[in-house]
Amino acid sequence: MRLLRRxxxxxxxxxxxxxxxxxxxxxxxxxxVNFAKRAGKxxxxxAVGPRTSNSKAAGKLxxxxxxxxxxxxxxxxxxxxxxxxxxxxxxFSEVNDNQAGAIxxxxxxxxxxxxxxxxxxxxxxxxxxxxxxxxxxxxTPSPVNLARTVGGQNANVSGLAPGTQHAFTINGSNTFxxxxxxxxxxxxYRGQVRQDGRGTPAGTCLVTGTAETFEP
Length: 216
Prior knowledge:
Elements: H1 2-6, H2 12-37, H3 54-57, E1 85-94, E2 104-108, E3 112-120, E4 130-138, E5 144-150, E6 156-160, E7 165-170, E8 174-182, E9 185-196, E10 204-214
């Protein structure tokens, strides 16, 4: 009886303090659970993969590419509005005396492939005269609109059937531009050709430039 008498009711201040302690502990636990559930998210959203369609990615974060030596860490251009997918190309080739050079790849786009070949147009052995043949091949199942210029010449404009190619030869150093279009997709190549070693047994060709792809 004496022990029971010694146990007094807690004071109002103690009750308030204990209630605050319980609420604080519970709130921290809830916050910890919510943080664990939302870990790796920004504003509650997880990023969708780079291969996700634009419709499914609408209103969501987009992850960068994981693989690819030149694309790793980059966001695909389809998520960036009207920003073109731009890159560079380049190829250095040595002339084979009195022979046509092997076809070398420069760039592959949604509409086709760009290649070059470094040839010898001289007739005498041991005295090379470099010339470069640039070719665009339509790899789509539909015709594409094609325009091509070399230096300051007038543009050559035509349609290019599926599986066919448009080739042109540049004798001497010069610049070129190719524009290919189909269904609102435009691919533009701007390049330069440099040919060295004319009249020597060590002729060379250098083709460099930029490639831009615009999508609606």
